[in-house]
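Sequence design from tokenized structure. All designs in this work follow the same two-part layout: the structure record, then the generated sequence. An example of the structure record is given first.
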């Protein structure tokens, strides 16, 4: 049994946009390790915006991992230009976009089944179905078309503990895609990316993982992976991919205590309102040298609209605390959320000016109503238009990228123009005062 798992590497869509490698694809690497553990042969194949035609004729199963909606179009190009045999091969998909739009994915990519949830159990059951050991109706968490062309949705799998999973199959990707240098502040440490927890309980309206089920790994499980990477691959540090590392402080403490003797340096993302002395102490002891803080805006009324529900005083307090522990601080700004205008942008500028000594780096993101977010699902509330729920939808999924900034997503033309001009002012200020270090 030979299985291809396909993922998109879209360097032009990576967060820093300058064609640099970003995080490796954890979904495919985790599914591959589970399949390999059962003795199946797996290849993880990369497609890009210009290289998407593959010879897939040697595989029994072709699995598309559609990580973001922005990559849907390139999967479509791959599906219809590659060498595939629909009759003998099982064609399946999963990933965030597939979870949000399973039926659209099934139809538009002409697949046999689409997984609408986490895929650990489903992928093995789909292999069983291909071998003939079970029917699609007995496969968890999928949609498929029955003999009458009716869509069937099967029951969702009961999620398993992510602790017990085998390590992500990093060995299936080129080493240079996995182990990177020059990504941790002020150093040339060799690092790997790690995924410690999944999901988030907060409700930020612009985020597609808001209010999703959280799965935690124990300190012991994180340590096992890091020790393996240190001993076998010589890493000096790691970056935690989790969207929000500090959700449960006891869990964070347990990870910190378990790994502190390894001497690795690391970086993680957090909200500002959970930062306190005691958690910082533990993190620093365990090797944390960088925190990326989701600040988003300097305007409290906009933070409220975003459902971020943080305050300027919490932001400033977090910045001061992090600096007092000598941790490098990157802040993340989201510009252009519905309601952003000249005034709100000036408030952000003021915040940056007043705290510039506490900020080492800034990453700026421009608002796009990403599928799966509260904004996307409530367009009237946010005065948003142009998404696929509206007449005149142009079918171009690639616009759901933070780098697609020509579209007027909310309000009227004058709101759009004010927001764009304000962005320019903010961007000029940031580029003049902060250097992109890495
Ligand atoms: C790491 C990451 C990245 C990395 C790497 C992406 C990659 N190749 O995996 C980088 C930085 C490059 C990146 C880029 C982008 N990302 Co990103 N990224 C993430 C992040 C933080 C983690 C993804 C991850 O590893 N998850 C953990 C793994 C285990 O989950 P998974 O991939 O979903 O896989 C599971 C299931 O989906 C399923 N599954 C997956 N594939 C398959 C296939 C089959 C056959 C089956 C059965 C099951 C299955 O099984 C897996 C195990 O349970 C997520 C947020 C999140 N928490 O998901 C955002 C997220 C996916 N990204 C997002 C976005 C918007 C982007 C960009 C478009 C950013 C931009 N430029 O605007 C680009 C698109 C790039 C691309 N390649 O598609 C959004 C997507 C929202 C949406 N509806 O589109 C998310 C949800 C962030 C958010 N908070 O809103 N991203
Ligand atoms: S932005 Fe961060 S805190 Fe907010 S819901 Fe998303 S992951 Fe959670």
């Amino acid at each position: 049994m030979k299985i291809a798992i396909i993922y998109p590497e879209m360097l032009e869509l990576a967060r820093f946009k300058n064609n640099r490698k970003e995080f490796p694809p954890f979904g495919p690497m985790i599914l591959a390790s589970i399949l390999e553990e059962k003795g199946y042969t797996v290849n993880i194949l990369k497609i890009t915006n210009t290289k998407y035609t593959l010879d897939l004729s040697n595989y029994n199963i072709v699995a598309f991992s559609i990580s973001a909606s922005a990559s849907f179009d390139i999967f479509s190009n791959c599906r219809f230009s590659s060498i595939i045999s629909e009759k003998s091969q099982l064609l399946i998909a999963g990933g965030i976009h597939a979870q949000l739009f399973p039926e659209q994915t099934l139809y538009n990519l002409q697949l046999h089944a689409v997984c609408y949830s986490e895929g650990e159990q489903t992928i093995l059951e789909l292999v069983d179905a291909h071998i003939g050991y079970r029917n699609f109706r007995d496969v968890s968490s999928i949609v498929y078309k029955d003999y009458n062309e009716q869509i069937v949705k099967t029951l969702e799998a009961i999620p398993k503990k992510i602790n017990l999973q085998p390590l992500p199959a990093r060995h299936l990707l080129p080493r240079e895609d996995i182990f990177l240098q020059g990504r941790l502040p002020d150093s040339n440490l060799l690092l790997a990316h790690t995924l410690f927890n999944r999901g988030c309980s907060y409700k930020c309206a612009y985020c597609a993982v808001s209010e999703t089920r959280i799965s935690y790994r124990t300190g012991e499980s994180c340590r096992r992976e890091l020790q393996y990477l240190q001993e076998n691959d010589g890493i000096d540090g790691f970056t935690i991919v989790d969207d929000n590392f500090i959700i449960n402080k006891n869990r964070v403490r347990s990870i910190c205590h378990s790994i502190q003797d390894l001497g690795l340096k690391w970086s993680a993302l957090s909200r500002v309102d959970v930062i306190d002395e005691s958690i910082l102490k533990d993190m620093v002891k365990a090797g944390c040298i960088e925190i990326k803080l989701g600040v988003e805006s300097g305007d409290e009324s906009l933070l409220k609209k975003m459902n971020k529900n943080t305050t300027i005083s919490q932001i400033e307090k977090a910045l001061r605390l992090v600096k007092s522990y000598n941790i490098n601080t990157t802040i993340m700004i989201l510009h252009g959320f519905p309601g952003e205008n000249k005034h709100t942008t000036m408030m952000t500028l003021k915040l940056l000016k007043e705290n510039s000594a506490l900020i080492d780096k800034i990453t700026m993101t421009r608002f796009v109503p990403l599928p799966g977010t509260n904004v996307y699902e409530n367009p009237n509330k946010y005065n948003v238009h142009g998404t696929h729920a509206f007449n005149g939808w142009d079918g171009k999924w690639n616009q759901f990228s933070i780098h697609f900034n020509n579209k007027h997503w909310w309000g009227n033309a004058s709101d759009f123009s004010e927001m764009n001009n304000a962005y320019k002012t903010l961007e000029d200020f940031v580029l003049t005062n902060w250097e992109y270090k890495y």
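The CA atoms of residues 333 and 419 lie 14 Å apart. We note this feature because it recurs in several other targets discussed in the main text.
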